[in-house]
Amino acid sequence: MKEKIQEKFKVLFGVPCDVYASAGRINLIGEHTDYNGGYVLPGAIDKGIMAGIAPNGTDLVKVFSIDYNEYAQFGLEEEDKPEQQWARYIFGVCRETIKRGGTVKGFNAVFCGDVPLGAGLSSSAALESTFAFALNDIFGNGFDLFELARIGQSTEHNYCGVKCGIMDQFASCFGKAGYLIRLNCKTLEYQYFPFNYEGYKMVLVDTCVKHELASSAYNKRRESCENALAAIRKRHPDTETLSDAKRIWLEEVKAEIPSEDYLRAEHVIGEVQRVLDLCDALERKDFETVGELMYQTHFSLSRLYEVSCEELDFLNKVARKCDVTGSRVMGGGFGGCTINLVKEELYDQFIRTAIDLYAKKFGRAPKIYDIVSSDGARKL
Ligand code: ADP
Ligand code: MG
Predict the structure, then answer these.
(1) Is the C-beta atom of 85 inside 6 A of ligand 1?
(2) 348 is an active site residue
(3) 151 with 71, same domain?
(4) Of 110, 114, 120, 80, residue with least CA distance to 13
(5) Into how many domains does the chain fold?
(6) Domain check: are 92 and 167 in the same one?
(7) Given Cys at both, which of 49, 58, 267, 279 links 305, Cβ 3.0 to 4.6 Å?
(8) Which residue's CA is the nearest one to ligand 1's atom 9?
């Protein structure tokens, strides 16, 4: 990718460039915990965005997207927002950098990537983090990685209409090869955990479906969590978030809240504990426990939080049948991928079986993405 970018840059702009990169991400465990003040456990992956960049001495940004084979040009004032969606991510990063007192002047850029779009691997965060990191370096703004992650998050909020949390940008800025990062979504404290899964492979199996109810169901889940928290707070007023609640506190209010709200809260409280347990297991290199916790999360998302779907549950069952160590739905649910931790010697058999059985049942093959833990935002 690097050579391709440097060549294209030379052809388009006639000068050399610096090359920067960032990564998409997985989340091994910690689902629907972020907006409940709990833990997530993401890590950067070997699929990302790469960009060649050099200042051009003007007030204009000139960018070429290799993957879209499209060119965009825009100024750096608020009213200069470009037409193309992909260019808005870059424009947003420029604007958010400037809003924070940083310097951005005109530059030329060529970029491309290999994060599958909309598969739950956060290609958009990889794009934002690449440019946030690069502009910070090139114009010497001195923002720390957290601020760069926030620049990406604000770009989604203010220029792309996506009210996302901080996890995706956090992972693609802070990611390190061989590590996952446990982030406390309430305090933003974080800790690296070794992720040396020698003898295993990480693979995503993409259902290639996205069921429509996703956003309304999401809002309902959030409401249920708020209701459960409000009930708990009447007895335990210092409970800041649902993740701070003890399981027995939820039992105390069981009769006072709709059973649906109870189930949702049960997922959240259980999931927070599973993240902690999984991190302990990682430190012991106990991948059997890691995998079992992944299956427990899938069960909880499917039966308690009810954000799975037929396709995802099917792939999860196939994984069990193939002796895959761990498997669960990754991301918001109602479609997207399962993330699987599988022993190397079982990998081929699992993939063949998953493709075959899924195609027979649903009439189309799932997509397969091999995943390797990698570095996040960096200069090459
Ligand atoms: P994801 O879940 O992958 O983040 P999004 O819809 O949030 O999906 O972001 C995808 C968008 O990010 C694309 O529509 C495009 O605008 C931009 N994008 C991602 N990867 C690339 C790329 N390689 N080249 C150009 N634009 C990209
Ligand atoms: Mg995105």
Answers:
(1) yes
(2) no
(3) yes
(4) 110
(5) 2
(6) yes
(7) 267
(8) 124
Three-state secondary-structure class, residue 191: strand
Alpha helices (runs of H) in the chain, residue ranges in sequence order = 2-13, 85-99, 123-138, 145-159, 167-174, 214-235, 247-252, 259-283, 287-299, 310-321, 344-362
Cα 348 from chain centre: 26
| Helices and strands (H and E) in the chain: how many | 11, 13
Ligand 2 center from residue 210 Cα (angstroms): 14
The residue whose CA has the least distance to atom 17 of ligand 1 is: 86
Residues 43 and 135 in one domain: yes
Domain interval for residue 357: 200-370
Residues 182 and 302 in one domain: no
SS3 120: coil
Task: Say yes or no: CB of residue 123 within 6 Å of ligand 1.
Answer: yes
Residues 128 and 228 in one domain: no
Does the pTM surpass 0.70? The reply is yes
Calpha distance 283→279 (Å, rounded): 6
CA 226 / ligand 1 centre spacing (Å): 31
Give the pLDDT of the chain (380 residues) as one tens digit per residue.
999 999 999 999 999 999 999 999 999 999 999 999 999 999 999 999 999 999 999 999 999 999 999 999 999 999 999 999 999 999 999 999 999 999 999 999 999 999 988 788 999 999 999 999 999 999 999 999 999 999 999 999 999 988 788 999 999 999 999 999 999 999 999 999 999 999 999 999 999 998 776 678 888 999 999 999 999 999 999 999 999 999 999 999 999 999 999 999 999 999 999 999 999 999 999 999 999 999 999 999 999 999 999 999 999 999 999 999 999 999 888 899 999 999 999 999 999 999 999 999 999 999 999 999 999 999 99
Same domain for 336 and 212, yes or no, is yes
Which residue has the least CA distance to atom 23 on ligand 1? 113
